C-alpha cells in the first residue's frame, strides 16, 4: 500500500488508514453510495495519485479533480495569444516550463521555439525581470500564469520594474482567482460532490475564510489541507466526519501555514496592482470576476496592450475532454484519448502536459507511467 510506505511509522499509519476507512464506510452507508470528494489543487491531485489514495479508498470514496491546475485552466484563446507574442520580432517570451508544451491550434511554444522564436524557461517572475535588465535590446514578456499563490509575486515584480524604469519588460496576465470559479462551478449544476479538499497554497494567501461561502451558500463542507500523506489522510478523515455529522462548514486543517484571514501583505500587493474582471477558463467559459487585470498605474507593463493583441479564434483539441475533467464530471479514464493518442510524450490537451494536471498524475502514478517507469 503506497500511502503506508510514505509514512514514517507504518504501524501508526495502519491505524490511521483503518480509522479513515471506518468513517468513510459509515459516510457511504449514510449516503447510500460512494462519497464524492473534489480536490481543487494540482498539488493535491498529484499527491492523491502518488500516494495511492484513490485505490485505498476505492468503493467508499470517489476522489475527483477540479479546476486546480493553473496551466490546465488557461483558456485556449490565451494560449493562442501567447503564441502570437512569441512570433513578434524582438520579443523573448519568458515562461514556466509546463507552458511551453501546451498545444495550441497549430503549434505550441516549444514548437515556436523550434521555428526560431525566442522562448525562455524561467523559475520565477524575478528571473524575467533580470532578463530584461541584462538584455535591453530585447522585449521580455513574462507569461503570468497561476492563482493567488503566484499573482503577488508577479505584482511585486512589476512594481520593481516600474521602480527601475524598465521599458523592455511586460507581463501577459492570465492569473486567475479560485473562489469565483468555485462559485461558478457550484452554480453550473455539473458539480455533484459531497465535500471539497481545498487548496493549501492558495489559502495561505486568501485565508480559509475566502471559502466559507461554499458551506454557507451551497451546504457543502470543505477542509483546507496540507500535502503530506498524514495531512491528506487527516483532512479526508475530518471532511468525512463533517459529512457524516451533516455539518456544512469550512475547516482549516493546515493552520501552521494558513490563517483564517490569509496573508494581508500579499493581498495588499495584489490589490495595488490588479483589479478583478471576468475571465475565460478552459471548460468553464466566462467566469465573473475571476481574472486579474492591471490597474491604470501599471498598464504600460500590460503585454496585451503594449503589443495590441487582437482577438483570436481558439480551437480546443478534437476529442480532448480536459474541460469536463476540470469540472469533475469525468476522470481521465473516461477520455478515449487517455493513454492512447494522449500521453506525456505526445499530449493532446493541457491536463496531460502539466505536472499538476490530473491526466499526467493518473498516467504517471496509476497508469502506463507506472509500468514504463516514468
Amino acid at each position: 500500500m503506497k500511502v503506508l510506505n510514505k509514512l514514517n511509522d507504518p504501524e501508526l499509519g495502519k491505524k490511521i488508514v483503518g480509522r479513515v476507512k471506518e468513517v468513510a464506510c459509515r459516510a457511504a452507508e449514510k449516503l447510500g453510495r460512494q462519497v464524492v470528494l473534489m480536490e481543487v489543487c494540482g498539488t493535491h491531485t498529484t499527491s492523491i495519485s502518488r500516494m495511492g489514495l484513490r485505490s485505498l479508498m476505492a468503493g467508499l470514496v470517489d476522489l475527483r479533480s477540479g479546476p486546480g491546475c493553473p496551466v490546465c485552466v488557461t483558456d485556449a484563446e490565451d494560449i493562442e495569444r501567447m503564441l502570437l507574442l512569441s512570433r513578434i520580432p524582438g520579443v523573448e517570451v519568458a515562461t514556466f516550463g509546463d507552458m511551453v508544451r501546451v498545444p495550441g491550434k497549430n503549434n505550441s511554444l516549444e514548437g515556436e521555439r523550434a521555428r526560431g522564436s525566442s522562448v525562455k524557461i524561467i523559475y520565477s517572475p524575478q528571473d524575467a525581470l533580470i532578463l530584461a535588465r541584462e538584455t535591453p535590446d530585447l522585449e521580455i514578456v513574462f507569461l503570468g500564469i497561476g492563482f493567488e499563490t503566484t499573482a503577488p509575486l508577479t505584482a511585486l515584480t512589476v512594481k520593481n520594474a516600474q521602480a527601475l524604469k524598465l521599458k523592455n519588460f511586460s507581463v501577459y496576465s492570465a492569473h486567475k482567482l479560485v473562489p469565483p470559479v468555485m462559485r461558478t462551478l457550484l452554480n453550473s449544476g455539473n458539480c455533484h460532490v459531497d465535500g471539497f479538499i481545498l487548496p493549501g497554497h492558495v489559502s495561505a494567501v486568501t485565508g480559509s475564510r475566502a471559502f466559507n461561502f461554499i458551506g454557507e451558500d451551497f451546504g457543502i463542507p470543505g477542509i483546507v489541507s496540507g500535502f503530506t500523506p498524514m495531512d491528506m489522510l487527516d483532512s479526508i478523515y475530518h471532511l468525512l466526519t463533517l459529512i457524516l455529522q451533516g455539518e456544512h462548514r469550512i475547516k482549516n486543517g493546515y493552520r501552521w501555514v494558513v490563517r483564517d484571514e490569509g496573508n494581508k501583505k500579499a493581498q495588499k500587493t495584489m490589490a495595488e496592482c490588479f483589479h478583478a474582471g471576468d475571465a475565460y477558463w478552459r471548460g468553464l467559459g466566462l467566469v465573473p470576476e475571476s481574472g486579474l487585470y492591471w490597474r491604470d498605474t501599471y498598464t504600460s507593463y500590460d503585454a496585451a496592450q503594449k503589443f495590441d493583441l487582437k482577438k483570436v479564434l481558439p480551437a480546443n483539441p478534437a476529442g480532448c475532454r480536459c474541460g469536463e475533467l476540470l469540472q469533475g464530471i469525468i476522470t481521465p479514464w473516461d477520455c478515449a484519448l487517455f493513454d492512447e493518442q494522449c500521453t506525456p510524450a505526445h499530449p493532446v490537451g493541457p491536463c496531460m502536459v502539466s505536472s499538476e494536471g490530473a491526466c499526467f498524475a493518473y498516467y504517471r502514478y496509476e497508469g502506463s507511467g507506472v509500468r514504463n517507469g516514468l
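The chain has three domains: 2-68+180-252, 71-177+262-306, 332-371. The chain has a mean pLDDT of 93.
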